[in-house]
Amino acid sequence: xxxxxxxxxxxxxxxxxxxxxxxxxxxxxxxxxxxxxxxxxxxxxxxxxxxxxxxxxxxxxxxxxxxxxxxxxxxxxxxxxxxxxxxxxxxxxxxxxxxxxxxxxxxxxxxxxxxxxxxxxxxxxxxxxxxxxxxxxxxxxxxxxxxxxxxxxxxxxxxxxxxxxxxxxxxxxxxxxxxxxxxxxxxxxxxxxxxxxxxxxxxxxxxxxxxxxxxxxxxxxxxxxxxxxxxxxxxxxxxxxxxxxxxxxxxxxxxxxxxxxxxxxxxxxxxxxxxxxxxxxxxxxxxxxxxxxxxxxxxxxxxxxxxxxxxxxxxxxxxxxxxxxxxxxxxxxxxxxxxxxxxxxxxxxxxxxxxxxxxxxxxxxxxxxxxxxxxxxxxxxxxxxxxxxxxxxxxxxxxxxxxxxxxxxxxxxxxxxxxxxxxxxxxxxxxxxxxxxxxxxxxxxxxxxxxxxxxxxxxxxxxxxxxxxxxxxxxxxxxxxxxxxxxxxxx
Length: 491
Fold this sequence. Notes:
The chain is mainly beta. The protein has helices at residues 21-26, 317-323, and strands spanning 41-47, 50-54, 61-64, 69-73, 77-82, 102-108, 115-121, 126-129, 142-147, 154-161, 164-171, 175-180, 188-193, 199-205, 211-217, 220-223, 235-238, 244-247, 258-261, 265-268, 277-283, 290-295, 304-309, 313-316, 331-339, 345-352, 355-362, 369-373, 384-387, 396-402, 409-414, 417-422, 425-429, 434-443, 446-452, 463-471, 479-488.
């Protein structure tokens, strides 16, 4: 019933030209030093590793081998941290919080002596096990499959008898909550959840045992079907705001990986090969980018990974790397399992010379223009920061903050991105390179801050990072933060 998840050269970075001091002065800023922004890179994390999670900024990776979980950072490399990974006859998978501190999984419950849904805390180097629903199957009473972006909610599966299990959600305040089933005597499982945990995705067993895609919004289940009413396969990925979900294709949609949104309905993503079978395994924070696999029927590593956007369609992930100028050697990036919030860092498993490997691929940022990244606070009115002005030298950069209370707010600007938790929010700017926080003027489009870009080609390729903030009476701290926005100046 509780099947395990799919099986599961030193990194190099080319520095980018730092921001020119006269540009910052022209925008009203002063610059003491400018950090370097990494270009694309490829890292083999190790043999027989399955990286299944990545932090919002791509700097932390988590996953498992056949016996335990691991956590990887550029400075520390692979550090094994225990727990009970899928190779121990139990279920579970690692999903990281956006700040990289926590990840989900399964560990031994100190009182039950059985495998339990758990969360690992890197700050203290310890697991916390959260119990079960009162039953067990083999050595497991529950298993952890996903974690909210804020790290406060874990989701997975809890056994209600030796042969039946239900999707579960854990918070410190509620403990384990049984999300139940809508088909009597059939099982469910939660695979992932959005940033604040109010949308949980997974599967619902049908009367014949077919795993239909399902999601729960504040505990209420919705089943995923095609426009013609045919049920589609289980969901394994969700965007930060819970608006986009992705899952595995089945016969009714020609086994195509798919995305679903309440406005668009089902979007079938196509195939790399006509006879392949596909699934979405990761979605960027804003839902614009999806990764997954497309493969022949058979072993998980014997297919191809893909990256999908509405503009490009499905593209082989090896091709994506080649087109970005990144050398992956003889590695086949066959099983991507997670993508960072900004869509630039992808992790997963693959093959190199016949050996199973875990890998991390960092794509270079857009050559120029505005590009969103990260996710801010889960306010009642979700703040969205976009760039709607010219991104060219000699143009006027316009930062537009929408959904702010009374259309008022401010824009913070910095030389580099960051990932600093602040209560329920995430500061997505590097505070050490912060230029300042500037008031945005109310306008029909939202709160707007504008700045002139000097008309000199030397500024082309320079990047500035922005985040909006606003008073939000619905938030405990009365503050809401937007997504991040990178402006890379065009020629």
